[in-house]
Amino acid sequence: MTTEIPVLLAAVSLFSALQMGYLARQVGLARMTHKVMPPTVTGPPEFERTFRAHQNNVELYPVFLVVLWTSGLLFSEVLAVLGGVVYTVARHMYFSGYVMSTKKRLPGFYLTLGALFFLSVLSTIGILHGILLEYFYKTVSMMVTH
Question: A cellular component term (GO) from this record (predicted)?
């Protein structure tokens, strides 16, 4: 656990937010290219793949932020940042692949799952460690000293 300001976690979070903005812009450009006006979300397959690729990123983003920050604050900021960088690269691979064809999204998808699994494991270990220290170690220490 860290007592310092989590600057690296903040940097990865900001980078990922900028990435989300970039992906949203790609949907806007696809709308203009294929003349699909909001709120319509159907159109040529190229537009629909771009739209779905962005939506899939939006759907996973809260999960990513939770496991990024939990693992970084409760386990290791450096390892969490590593997982966060892998996640953002994986999401770019996913988006770019999906825009080309649905099958080309799979390498990015599998790398995304690996990054989220890694961050989830670190988060779980950090949480369990904190619970053990807070609720079991203190209790046992108090029982032994009395």
Answer: nuclear envelope
d(CA 90, CA 111): 6
- Tokens 């790398």, located at residue: 111
Q: Residue 87's closest CA among 61, 50, 56, 126? A: 61
Write the DSSP assignment of 19-33 as a string of letters. Answer: HHHHHHHHHHHHHHH
Closest CA to 52 of 101, 98, 121, 14: 98
Which two tokens mark 103?
């099958």
Question: pTM here?
Answer: 0.91
First to last CA, the chain: 29
Contacting residues for 8 by C-beta, under 8 A, at least 6 apart = 72, 77, 78, 81
- Hey, what amino acid is at 57? N
Those residues whose C-beta lies under 8 Å from the C-beta of residue 48, and which sit 6 or more positions away, are 41, 42
- Strand locations in 15-76 (E): none
